[in-house]
Amino acid sequence: MPRSTKLPITINNRFLACLRVAVIATSASCGIRAGNVTLIPVAFEGWVVIRYQVPGAPSLDREGARTMVKVPASGSLSTSSDSPYGYGIDEYYLVGTDGERVRIQGEADGCNGQGTACIQHYEFTSSPIKATTVFVGKKQNLPRYPKPTVP
């Protein structure tokens, strides 16, 4: 019977450093970004539409490394800022007049939207303009709100 020979595997610090650099470079090239923080008025239900790169519109604020999106009561926001590129974990909050935030779950978080407001039907378009549309509300109320067209 042939004898098995095991070769010792040694990993040195230089190899680990190179591996770390490769992982970071790969993550950056795949478009990893800090997520957005989107603030929505507490009583809002319906479609949120965010239009990016609109000349003359105000730019978006920052909260640390994250982009802050403050949605008005109309649900429609135009900004001169570009849309953040890549993958990130976006957070959505209902915000009262006192500034207190309550996190809104999304479908991916397991929210079914039957009893509470959820983030549903998220869509990003890049032509003819860059825009994000997302429904905020209970799933059973979705038919009451026709999906907006984004020019």
Number of strands: 9
- Work out the radius of gyration: 22 Å
- Poorly predicted runs are none
Global morphology: globular
Please estimate the helix content: 10-25%
Strand proportion:
25-35%
For the largest beta-sheet, the strand count, sense and barrel status come to: 5 strands, mixed
* Lateral strand order in the biggest sheet: 3-4-1-6-7
Report the order of strands and helices: HEEEEEEEEE
| Gap between N and C termini | 74 Å
Task: Kindly report the average pLDDT value.
Answer: 82
Helix/strand-derived class? mainly beta
Number of helices: 1
List the helices and strands and how they pair.
Elements: H1 13-29, E1 36-41, E2 46-51, E3 61-63, E4 66-70, E5 76-78, E6 91-95, E7 101-104, E8 118-125, E9 131-137
Parallel strand pairs: 1-4, 1-6, 2-5
Antiparallel strand pairs: 2-9, 3-4, 6-7, 8-9
Structure description:
- The chain has 151 residues and is mostly beta strands.
- The protein is built from one helix and nine strands, in the order αβββββββββ.
A few lines on this structure:
This protein starts with 12 loop residues before the first helix and ends in a 14-residue tail after the last strand. The protein has one helix spanning 13-29, and strands at residues 36-41, 46-51, 61-63, 66-70, 76-78, 91-95, 101-104, 118-125, 131-137.
Index terms:
151 residues; mainly beta; 5-stranded mixed sheet; 4-stranded mixed sheet; 1 helix; 11% helix; 31% strand
